[in-house]
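re: ur question from earlier - yeah i can do the single chain one, its not a big deal. heres the input i used so u can compare w yours
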Amino acid sequence: MNTRFKLPPQIVRLVLLTVGIVGSYLIARAFLTPSSFGQYGWYRGDALMEAASHPRTFAGKPACTECHEEQAKQLAKFNHQSLSCEVCHGPGQAHVENFDVKLPVLTHGHCLRCHEKNPSRPHWHKQISSREHFPGDKCIECHKPHAPSEVP
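and the output i got, formated as tokens:
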């Protein structure tokens, strides 16, 4: 008597489908993964050179402090001391290279980006509800941007 084991056809189909999916994935991965992937860890090694090739847009706080020492000293006394100047004033590399290029004037929206009431922010972070806290007024009419705790 010939008792050969035979797999049910649905199992054979499932195995073939699994082999096909895994094989397709491995072939696609071989063609689509960049050659520099994994060169310096779990990312594309060429990404470092690509990022370095972009023109600089931010100058950094030290560049601002070189010419705006008084504002930097004033800012150092208050809660905004850890912020870069460019958080509020925008990218400043063009201004550093050419002083005729002016940085944007602060608007109501600049302050609200960080200080609008948001339940996900920590309780110690000063927040306001713009609808209740003098609606329509600009923040800088009552608060000095470089010394926000002082009222002019």
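The radius of gyration is 29 Å. not sure if urs matches, ping me
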